[in-house]
From TrEMBL:
Classification via SUPFAM superfamilies: ATPase domain of HSP90 chaperone/DNA topoisomerase II/histidine kinase, Homodimeric domain of signal transducing histidine kinase
Chain ranges of the HAMP domain: 165-218
Protein name listed in UniProt: histidine kinase
Compartment(s): Membrane
Histidine kinase domain location: 226-428
Membrane topology listed for this record: Multi-pass membrane protein
Top-level taxonomy: Bacteria, Pseudomonadati, Pseudomonadota, Alphaproteobacteria, Hyphomicrobiales
UniProt xrefs under InterPro entries: HAMP_dom, HATPase_C_sf, HATPase_dom, His_kinase_dom, HisK_dim/P_dom, HisK_dim/P_sf, Sig_transdc_His_kin-like_C, TCS_sensor_his_kinase
Organism from which the protein derives: Bradyrhizobium manausense
One Gene Ontology MF term: phosphorelay sensor kinase activity
């Protein structure tokens, strides 16, 4: 908007910069002509006071010595003609030509009636005379004065740009607030303070639309959480009844299916909590302690599948900005995913870096380049025939990373396997 306003304003300034000097030149020239005519008329009236009519009707003109030099041919600047009503020349300051009318002479004419006798007095000034500066002022106006209008207009343009920026500053603030709105921050609204009256209806409509979206997100999240909670009880009852079955093979198969369903329900609850999580900016967590707890909790699962899991890296606490419980869920899902795909009799390494990073390495088949973004999508699975997961674990990892302003990346190791890397902000850097 500022660009369009400034562009149009530059065009307006260019047009004004061209026509304003011309208008000023015309006004200056008109004013000079008016002042000149007024001065000449005043001189003619002064000369009229020196005309008298004798009793015999003879017209006399007595020019005092103080004015005689002004109208002398030696000086040559001012001239006068005095004529009767019929146009006959009575008195003149330039006997050689007998006419004050010339291309370079400009003046004024006054008609006076003296004792019943009408005379016409014309006074002129030779504009080419060296003492005349009015014509020089006009002719030199563009060169000496007219150019100043351009920098003045440019200064006005800069001032206008400053005013425009100040006027739309509240809109920039509203734009910054709008950039913070997302699925995890549906409570943010555009500010209405100092918003221009013309923009206020739009801001109000956007805030009302955000209210409706927030209600929709809240209902969706509540439904997911409620559904997950409601499924927990039937699964617990089903697990208890399965334990009473006599056939060990059937009982184990049903038990495995129930555990898978329970895991999916638990992950749905985690997703519902992530969607409503608002981190405290001052909250910190010890990343090494979180990873140590995850490794200790998941070690029995790895051992049961004839696999190992090891904690490596930093020995001292690594403080980062984040929520310990959510960080634990993210690392647990990475470790669980690594154990699922690593080969038997191999190890999964969880390495904590002093820079706030966590690397989880496995000895599995790795991840192809085309799948490195797909694996973080909810319910995405490479093999749809597998029933040991719903494709929610890595989406939870991505959700935790997004909530913590962290990054998550995956690369293949040279010797085979995949390496998932989470990078968080160190608490010292944030402080």
């Amino acid at each position: 908007m500022i660009s369009r306003i400034v562009f149009l304003h530059i065009i307006a300034v260019a047009v004004v910069a061209i026509f304003l000097p011309l208008v000023l030149f015309w006004l200056l020239n008109s004013e000079i002509d008016q002042l000149h005519r007024a001065a000449m008329r005043a001189q003619a009236e002064t000369l009229a006071e020196r005309i008298s009519v004798q009793p015999d009707g003879k017209i006399t003109f007595n020019l005092p010595d103080s004015l005689r030099g002004l109208y002398s041919e030696a000086y040559g600047r001012y001239q006068y003609d005095i004529r009767d009503v019929d146009g006959r020349l009575l008195f003149s300051s330039h006997k050689k030509t007998g006419d004050a009318r010339s291309d370079t002479v400009s003046g004024a004419e006054v008609t006076q009636t003296i004792d019943g006798t009408t005379v016409r007095i014309r006074v002129g000034e030779d504009l080419s005379h060296r003492d005349v500066i009015t014509d020089d002022i006009v002719s030199n106006f563009f060169r000496r004065v007219g150019w100043i209008t351009i920098p003045i207009l440019l200064i006005l343009l800069a001032i206008d740009i400053f005013i425009f920026r100040r006027a739309i500053a509240p809109l920039w603030k509203a734009s910054e607030e709008a950039s913070n709105i997302g699925p995890a921050r549906t409570d943010v609204r555009l500010p209405t303070e100092q918003i221009p009256r013309e923009i206020m209806p739009l801001v109000t409509a956007v805030n009302q639309a955000l209210d409706r979206l927030e209600d929709g997100f809240r209902l969706q999240r509540q439904f997911t959480a409620d559904a997950a909670h409601q499924l927990r009880t039937p699964l617990a009852i089903l697990r208890t009844r399965v334990e009473t079955l006599g056939n060990n093979a059937v009982r184990q198969a049903l038990h495995d299916d129930i555990e898978g369903m329970s895991r999916i329900v638990a992950q749905l609850l985690e997703i519902a909590e992530l969607d409503t999580l608002v981190l405290d900016p001052g909250e910190t967590a010890d990343l090494r302690a979180v990873c140590a707890e995850v490794v200790g909790a998941i070690a029995p699962l790895a051992i049961a599948q004839h696999k190992d899991i090891a904690l490596k890296g930093a020995e001292a606490p690594v403080l980062i900005h984040g929520n310990s419980e959510m960080l634990q869920r993210a690392v647990f899902n990475l470790a669980e995913n690594a154990i699922k795909f690593t080969a038997k009799e191999t190890s999964v390494d969880v390495e904590v870096g002093d820079d706030g990073s966590v690397r989880v390495r496995d000895c599995g088949p790795g991840v192809t380049e085309a799948e490195r973004e797909l694996i973080f999508q909810r319910f995405w699975r490479r093999d749809r025939q597998r029933s040991d997961g719903a494709g929610l674990g890595l989406s939870i990892v991505r959700g935790v990373a997004d909530d913590h302003a962290a990054t998550v990346a995956v690369d293949n190791l040279p010797g085979g396997g995949a390496e998932f890397t989470l990078r968080f902000r160190l608490a010292e850097q944030g402080a």
